Amino acid sequence: MVRSLWTGATGMLAQQTSLDNIANNLANVNTTGFKSQSIEFKNLLYQTLQTKTTSANGDTKPGHAQVGLGTRVSSLNTSFSQGSFFASENDTAFAIGGNGFFGIKGGDGKTYYTRNGNFGWTLASNGGNMLATSDGNPVLDTKGNPIILDSKYTTSRITVTNDGQICYPDEKNNPQPLGITIGLWQFNNPNGLSREGDTLFEETAASGRAINEATNNNLQKSTINQGYLEGSNVQVADEMVNMITTQRAYELNSRVITTSDSMLDTANNLRR
Predict the structure, then answer these.
(1) Is the dihedral angle over the CA atoms 125, 129, 131, 133 positive or is it negative?
(2) 144-188 per-position pLDDT tens digit
(3) CB 138 within 8 A of CB 147
(4) What is the pTM for the complete model shown?
(5) Can you tell me the distance from the alpha carbon of 35 to that of 83, in angstroms, rounded to the nearest whole number?
(6) Contact 71/14 with Cβ under 8 angstroms?
(7) Which residues neighbour 270 within 8 Å (Cβ) at sequence distance 6 or greater?
(8) What is the distance between the alpha carbons of residues 44 and 11, in angstroms, rounded to a whole number?
(9) What contacts 19, CB < 8 A, 6 or more positions away?
(10) Whole-angstrom Cα distance, residue 165 to residue 229?
(11) Across-strand partners of 5?
(12) What does the pLDDT look like over 201-229, one tens digit per residue?
């Protein structure tokens, strides 16, 4: 019965973590570029109550008796499925079609990756215009450098092609490439990326090195869609169903503890 108390407790802890994950997904249903997570469980060690043996007649018993010791969270897997595109009036709103990520230079000097293309132009240290995130972090080009344009360019007239080339109209109002392309990167195992908040991901040993789409011809190229933003891929209906399932599982594990406590109380009062 003491074993059942601990087993029920592990189930309650695991379901609480599951509910925390569901709440985080629902809280970010309107976060641009957010990728939902799903939780995976695994059972704990088994305790052997009886090993394989023979009966009184000498016949071999078909199996042994083992009892499980509960469950725990195994992993949180990120779904990188494509979110829906939403039109934006912002000229520096970009949605990625495909598996690519934008490269961002963080304040600590590290390179981070994101699907959130809600950018804007800000003043660079040299007086030019720099493409940056809402937090002011530089967006990187295909060479891994911040995208900075000369101050002579009017930012409202800048356009970006589907392959990421930044263009500016000539005297005939025809867009001409400026020789700068927004960088896109992919990963062999994007689920191995480390979440850093603000829809940013960091490269890890599990994800593998970032693969530059501009220098690798073996990748299926992503596209950049100006004037659109990628919404989160959270499915509200699925999350609500998961929440109900999690609540029921939590209640059942709670009932296991209550029942075990009741049985222990009965055993303690047998002498009375």
Answers:
(1) positive
(2) 999 999 988 899 999 999 999 999 998 888 999 999 999 999 999
(3) yes
(4) 0.84
(5) 8
(6) yes
(7) none
(8) 11
(9) 243, 246, 247, 250
(10) 18
(11) none
(12) 999 999 999 999 999 988 899 999 999 99
Q: Which residues contact 51 (CB under 8 A, 6 or more apart)?
A: 64
Instruction: Give rounded-to-5 percent helix, strand, coil for the chain.
Output: 25, 35, 40
Phi-psi region of 158 (alpha: psi -120 to 50; beta: other; left: phi over 0): beta
Q: Which two tokens stand for residue 199?
A: 């829809």
| Structure tokens given for 189 | 């195992």
Structure tokens of 169? Answer: 């109209």
Question: CA Rg, the chain, in Å?
Answer: 27
Instruction: Give the pairing of strands 65-68 and 211-212.
Output: unpaired
Task: Provide the terminal-to-terminal Cα distance of the chain, rounded to the nearest Å.
Answer: 20
Handedness of CA 170, 176, 180, 182 (dihedral sign): positive
Number of residues in the chain: 272
